[in-house]
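Q: Joint fold for the lines below.
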Amino acid sequence: EVQLVESGGGLVQPGGSLRLSCAASGFNFSTYSMIWVRQAPGKGLEWVSYISAGYYTINYADSVKGRFTISRDNAKNSLYLQINSLRAEDTAVYYCARNWRMDVWGKGTTVAVSS
Amino acid sequence: QSALTQPRSVSGSLGQSVTVSCTGTTSDVGGYNDVSWYQQHPGKAPKLLVYDVTKRPSGVPDRFSGSKSGNTASLTISGLQADDDSDYYCCSYAGSYTWVFGGGTKLTVL
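A: Joint structure:
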């Protein structure tokens, strides 16, 4: 079964950091690009970041550029999102999704930023 | 990276058809044949319904169809069923490995 499972979310103070993980299974992870999408409470979906299959191409939404870092370990079938300098507006469910079509999604991990 | 424009809500009766619009610019919807649609039930992850404007993944019923004209993409759902009552989001490639979503549309099945 094709599956993505996010982890690493939690409650963090403004200015803090978290590292989100996305474990992939059931498909050849190393051949797919990956995307992070987030959804603030009661709000719509927001594209956050993209990484190509071979790590060569990476990009970020303007709202997170300079604070978030996407990476992957193809040997571990894992995708990561390092989020630094957290702000209240980063509070959201963070989803990982497979390839630019976003054809497979995980269930998400919740990040809450509050003092 | 401005969000695409979708109606906040639409409604239709069981068995009827509804269309959800998604308006962007020449920098996103109008510039690429890379528009996707997602269905999201409350508390659940989004599900891909349509990609590349008109294509459906395996397992998605042909009641869901996509189209595009200029800077506006559309999702049409025919033969409305109770389970179609959900939120729908469009998404477009916007160049330079960036994507933009619409604000979402709440479909109410009457």
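Q: Anything notable?
A: The interface with chain A takes residues 1, 3, 34, 36, 38, 40, 44-48, 51-52, 57, 89, 91, 93, 96-104 of chain B (CB under 8 Å). The first strand of chain B starts at residue 9 and ends at 12.
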